[in-house]
Design brief:
single chain, mainly beta, Phage tail proteins - horseshoe like beta roll fold, 5 helices, disordered N terminus, Phage late control D family protein
Length: 348
């Protein structure tokens, strides 16, 4: 069976499962209209500031569809008629493109409109505070509510300088230092540890179990292994105010010969330790990656654990999901692509 682009969807259609979507635009339910005209819809759930997106292409031949406005709020969900629909999130429309001959509309939306003030460079000093308070200020300037893991919210910050740096960059930099991720999701700035398969409230995320029957079409699994990290150590300098000297905190055990050294010293040993642990986790996760294409799995989400079973010994281990892409091909097929990395859990 061919879609409107002339692509054979037969290998990607699941017997007994009828794709379904749910969509609101500024509160108005357009699900039926959209589904009847939809050529393609892609929803991306990822880690980081610019990863959560929605793109919808519709057939705009007669009768014409009213073009949504840039800045409109769109809510979207998907699944199957037989098992139900799961809400994926809310997005802000950032672009509406109109193609002619054939007549098509492509609507692009993001979980957060980063064209606004969050990209402005700021000069700000934070002293004797916590990560929770800093992220609270950032979220407020972005117009978002803050959702931060309790273990991160209470981390003390003796001094932090924001020098000609955007709030987007600062939020990412702080999260990376703590082996965490900061991302706008559904009207909130979510800050949570990486690779722990837990929600921002600390609850365990349900793992995604994948069996051979879940794989969609040929060439649906790819594992990429990389060399062991070249950095065997992570070195974080810090200011010892009692002696006026620069000391170092060192973590070993990554297997490489070289050392990764932070350029600027941290304010104290605790900050240096957390930064070193975060960097070591980042290096550990770079050891390999997994890509899978499944028949639609609306429950798949970034940061959850992926547990393949019965596929291959190189695949059947626990992975940490970094990106999920849901694709609806017309109203005929629903696929979920997953990218994942090793969890990066290491010991001191």
């Amino acid at each position: 069976m061919l879609d409107r682009f002339g692509i054979d969807l037969a290998p990607f259609m699941r017997d007994g499962h009828t794709p379904a979507i749910w969509c609101l635009v500024d509160g108005q339910n357009v699900s039926d209209l959209l589904f009847s005209r939809m050529m393609r819809a892609e929803v991306v759930d990822g880690i980081g500031m610019r990863n959560d997106t929605l793109a919808i292409t519709v057939d705009n031949s007669q009768p014409k569809i009213a073009r949504p406005k840039v800045g409109a709020r769109i809510e979207f969900g998907g699944g199957y008629k037989e098992t139900g629909i799961i809400r994926f999130g809310s997005y802000t429309i950032t672009e509406v493109a109109h193609e002619f001959y054939p007549d098509r509309l492509t609507i692009t939306a993001k979980a957060f409109d980063d064209r606004k003030a969050a990209k402005e460079r700021r000069n700000r000093a934070y002293a004797d505070t916590t990560l929770g308070q800093i992220y609270g200020e950032i979220a407020g300037r972005m117009g978002l509510a803050l959702a931060i893991a309790p273990a991160l919210a209470t981390v003390k910050v003796s001094y932090l300088a924001q020098r000609a740096e955007s709030d987007l960059h600062l939020a990412t930099r702080l999260a990376r230092r703590e082996n965490a991720a900061a991302a706008p999701k559904d009207g909130r700035l979510v800050v949570a540890p990486l690779g722990q398969a837990r929600s921002v409230t600390g609850q365990a995320l349900p793992p995604l179990v994948v069996k051979p029957a879940d794989l969609a079409g040929p060439g649906s699994v790819k594992v990429t292994e990389t060399e062991a990290p070249t950095h065997g150590q992570v070195v974080a300098p810090w200011n010892d105010r009692a002696t006026g000297r620069i000391r170092t905190f060192t973590l070993s055990g990554l297997g490489g010969a070289a050392a990764f050294t932070f350029r600027d010293p941290f304010q104290n040993e605790a900050d240096a330790r957390r930064a070193a642990e975060g960097k070591r986790g980042e290096l550990a996760r770079a050891r390999g990656k997994l890509w899978m294409r499944l028949y639609g799995r609306p429950t798949a989400q970034a940061e959850a654990n992926l547990t393949p079973a019965g596929i291959d010994p190189a695949v059947d281990v626990t992975w940490s999901i970094t990106k999920v892409k849901h694709t609806f091909a017309a109203n005929l097929a629903y696929l979920t692509e997953i990218e994942a990395v090793p969890p990066g859990k290491t010991t001191s």
